[in-house]
């Protein structure tokens, strides 16, 4: 009789645990890793930067084509599950995705209207809203490192203004700021959530600092192409770090 009762108890416990894990799957299994969302956001940003350059060039046809590609990248963002590391921010993330969706729709309405013959202020305003809402979403998706944020403030001016406009003198003038901010990267206190990537991140930071040194050296001369290449290398090395956060 005791053997029968013990067997019955084991079966009850087994069924209870099975039912629990079926109804309440682990959060990790449900939401996965951060990589798919990070990749989708990076892809969207690259396409958004491309559209930015096209709008500034005034190419309406290319802008319409690129908007369709940007919309496809946004669809990828919406399809990705919220990663475990960000699960506590799920509602905020969803809210900012909704805001980005609204601004994407408004940009589409402005850019794809049949009577539009050139890129106008409505289109530019719509794009600014997309960029702003994506930045707000991005602020929730990445680990914030103050030293890298400050470095990016300098890089943003160079990459989005000086570099595309061949403003070589402006690039030369800002190199001391680059050097100053690059030096502060040695003081980064990496958060525990990045423990499995810290050694790689440190190597990437060193590569970024070397790229800044090479830019400084290039700016001692008058070779425009060398200076632009060195600037692009700084951008690529920063981007490599940013993609890991």
Features of this protein?
Four Helix Bundle (Hemerythrin (Met), subunit A); mainly alpha; disordered N terminus; 245 residues; 2 domains; 10 helices
Q: Class by helix and strand content?
A: mainly alpha
How much strand content do the residues show? under 5%
Q: Whole-Å distance between the termini?
A: 60 Å
CATH fold-level name of the largest domain = Four Helix Bundle (Hemerythrin (Met), subunit A)
- What's the CATH class of the largest domain, please? Mainly Alpha
Supply the number of helical segments.
10
Helix content: over 70%
How many structural domains does the protein architecture include?
A: 2
**Average of per-residue pLDDT values:** 85
In CATH, the homologous superfamily of the largest domain goes by the name Oxygen-evolving enhancer protein 3 (PsbQ), four-helix up-down bundle
Which CATH architecture of the largest domain is right?
A: Up-down Bundle
Can you count the beta strands?
0
Biggest sheet record: none
Low-pLDDT stretches are 2-32
Radius of gyration based on Cα positions: 24 Å
Overall, the morphology is flat
Q: Secondary-structure element order, as H and E?
A: HHHHHHHHHH
In words, what does this structure look like?
The protein is mainly alpha-helical and 245 residues long. It has two domains: 32-142, Oxygen-evolving enhancer protein 3 (PsbQ), four-helix up-down bundle (Four Helix Bundle (Hemerythrin (Met), subunit A)); 143-245, Up-down Bundle (Four Helix Bundle (Hemerythrin (Met), subunit A)). It has ten helices and no strands. The termini are far apart.
């Amino acid at each position: 009789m005791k053997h029968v009762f013990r067997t019955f108890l084991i079966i009850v416990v087994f069924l209870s645990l099975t039912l629990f894990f079926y109804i309440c799957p682990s959060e990790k299994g449900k939401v996965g890793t951060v990589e798919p969302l990070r990749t989708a956001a990076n892809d969207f940003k690259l396409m958004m930067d491309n559209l930015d350059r096209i709008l500034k060039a005034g190419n309406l046809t290319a802008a319409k084509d690129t908007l369709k590609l940007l919309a496809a990248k946004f669809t990828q963002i919406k399809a990705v599950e919220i990663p475990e590391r960000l699960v506590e921010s799920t509602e905020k993330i969803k809210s900012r995705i909704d805001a980005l969706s609204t601004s994407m729709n408004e940009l589409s309405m402005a850019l794809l209207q049949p009577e539009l013959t050139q890129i106008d202020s409505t289109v530019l305003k719509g794009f600014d809203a997309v960029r702003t809402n994506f930045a707000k979403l991005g602020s929730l998706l990445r680990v914030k490192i103050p030293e890298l944020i400050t470095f990016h403030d300098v890089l943003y001016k160079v990459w989005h203004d000086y570099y595309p406009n061949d403003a070589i003198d402006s690039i030369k003038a800002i190199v001391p700021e680059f050097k100053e901010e690059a030096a502060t990267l040695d003081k980064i206190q990496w958060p525990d959530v990045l423990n499995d990537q810290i050694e790689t991140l440190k190597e990437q930071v060193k590569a970024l600092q070397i790229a800044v040194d090479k830019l400084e050296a290039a700016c001692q001369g008058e070779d425009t192409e060398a200076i632009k290449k060195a600037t692009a290398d700084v951008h690529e090395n920063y981007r490599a770090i940013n993609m890991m956060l």
